[in-house]
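User:
I study polymers; will you set down one protein's sequence and backbone structure tokens?

Assistant:
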Amino acid sequence: MADRPEGPVRAAAGALDPGLESPAREYLAGTARTGVYEPALEPDDITIAPDGRPAEAQPRWRQDFPVDWPADQFVARRDFGRFLVLTSGAFVAGQAWIAARHLVRANRPPAPRMRVAALRDVPVGSAMVFTYPGPQDRCLLIRPDDATLVAFSQSCTHLSCAVVPRIAEGVLHCPCHEGYFDLRTGRNIAGPPPRPLPKILLETVNDEVYAVGVEEKAA
């Protein structure tokens, strides 16, 4: 006969199989319902609502916002799991969006030749906005001095906020997340932008400024 286990055996009254008390069968498997010998919950592990009713009888709001520690821990773990799933989904969607944008760029037809402005329309120390190569692609034409004329996409390479020229400071500033680009080269020099601004290639013919292409550089 097997040795008696140490410690008390907890079981509800009337839940034991009558044969359980037989000396020949005592503590053998199959003589009582499943769960009879499972450890009982400690009082601190049992959620009790203020009105004393069982959990299934409580309103939904009380189940979602428990009043004691055990259920509160459960809700926290459940919400943390949801957070992980949502965060992972957002990350995958973001990566897919970036890949799609690169694919679209790679399959774009060559940018057309397009007149932007006359030189007289861009005084030294000024900038103007134009669209190129498409009507939704906002760009900046900048003339920092008499001998220099540059143009860049106005969309920050971080999250596409519109950059603002600070000609006297020699920078293009993204006010959304404090990104900075060099005014003459478009190179990212500070803040979160991961790569330079796309550069618009220019040609000047008879004092007329033309955009002839887009040059994108890696970080």
About this structure: Strands lie at 114-118, 126-131, 138-145, 148-153, 164-166, 171-174, 179-182, 188-190, 199-205, 208-215. The longest helix spans residues 69-106.
